[in-house]
Amino acid sequence: MRRTLFLGFGILFLGAAGAPVALDRIELAPGTDTRVLGQAFLPCEVTVRAANRSARTVAVDLNDSQVKTKSGLWTTLEAEGGKGVCTEATMGLAARSDTKVSACTLESPCTQERRYKFKLTYDGNIAWAYYPSANGWTTDTDLDLGDIGRHFRGF
Questions:
Q1: Which of 1, 13, 41, 102 is most buried, judging by how many CB atoms fall within 10 Å of its CB?
Q2: Could you report the per-residue pLDDT of 117-133, keeping only the tens digit for each?
Q3: For residues 48 and 122, what is the distance between their CA atoms, to the nearest angstrom?
């Protein structure tokens, strides 16, 4: 028995004559795990965690923070997921505060490797924190920035 998965968008392939052919469904062989296929098209929810152990109030500006996929360009989280992409636009962390958490829904699937660049602010100063690093890639959905106050030592 074959199962047919209908997609909400068309996929274009080139036919034998070189003309584009639109497909609106994919036929799966018996026993195919549709969860794997679904992950390729579903949006990805990531959780951002941050703490502040410093003596100053700092913030993570999630709307202006950025994400990049291996094959893409830097784009803001808001542009990647739309208005209200994160449960909090700005995560304000008081001095010596506990960890705060915000969930963000991105349009690209969780299986894509990404690099994040988070905008941190303190008293008009800006610092950028990369996750997982300035040149690393991740498919993690739980992004722990650790103590973000460390980025403002010496200010």
A1: 102
A2: 999 999 999 999 999 99
A3: 19
Integer CA distances (angstroms), 140 to 46, 126, 137, in order = 8, 25, 9
Give the integer Cα–Cα distance in Å for 151 and 118: 11
CA 23 remoteness from chain centre: 28
- According to DSSP, residue 147 is labeled E
Instruction: Name the amino acid, one letter, at 29.
Output: A
Q: DSSP letters along 101-143, please?
A: EEEEEESS-TTS-EEEEEEEEETTEEEEEEES-SS--B--SEE
Rounded Cα gap, residues 53 and 98, in angstroms:
8
Give the integer Cα–Cα distance in Å for 152 and 89: 21
What does DSSP say about strands 142-147 and 44-52: parallel, antiparallel, or unpaired?
Answer: parallel
Contacting residues for 51 by C-beta, under 8 A, at least 6 apart: 93, 97, 98, 99, 100, 145, 146, 147, 148
Please give the chain's pLDDT, 155 residues, in tens: 433 333 444 444 444 555 554 444 445 556 555 444 444 557 899 999 999 999 999 999 998 999 999 989 999 998 887 778 899 999 999 999 889 999 999 988 899 999 999 999 999 999 999 999 999 999 999 999 999 999 998 76
